[in-house]
Amino acid sequence: MFKDNLSEALLKLIEEKNITQEKLAEACNLSFRYVNKIIGRKSAPTITSLEKICSTYDITPNELLLPAGFDKTEAKPVTQVKPINTGNRTEYHPVCPHCGKLLKTENIAFCNYCSGKLSWQNYSKATLLPDKVPKANRKENVK
User: Fold this and answer.
1) How many CA atoms lie within 13 A of 78 on its CB side?
2) What stretch(es) of the chain map to CATH 1.10.260.40?
3) Residues 116, 98: contact at Cβ < 8 Å?
4) Per the confidence metrics, is the pTM higher than 0.90?
5) Is 2-65 CATH 3.90.1150.10?
């Protein structure tokens, strides 16, 4: 997800500024091969490289790293819980309404993964997701 969002954001930046990947690399004092690998989703930038890109084009890291249209400032209610069997017991993990990943704990203000703002107001009415796919819906290997 991270590399996809960054790649799309850099391609959009290149289009908006009407520049090439070479010009982007040169302006940020980075090698063309390195920028090309980042845009091609083959490499992730270092924090220093990300800072160079952001400061050169006066943008924030969030503008580069978060998916388009993502508004992490709007609190979304946590409405789903996923049971996870851990051998002798079942643990219940809330699901982030922004990114769909399992949260490590309840009643946190922001998602551990995407930093989306969370609301726990109606969590007591959360929907329990199935632990496993029902047998009738599984794809069986036919031999």
Assistant:
1) 26
2) 2-65
3) yes
4) no
5) no
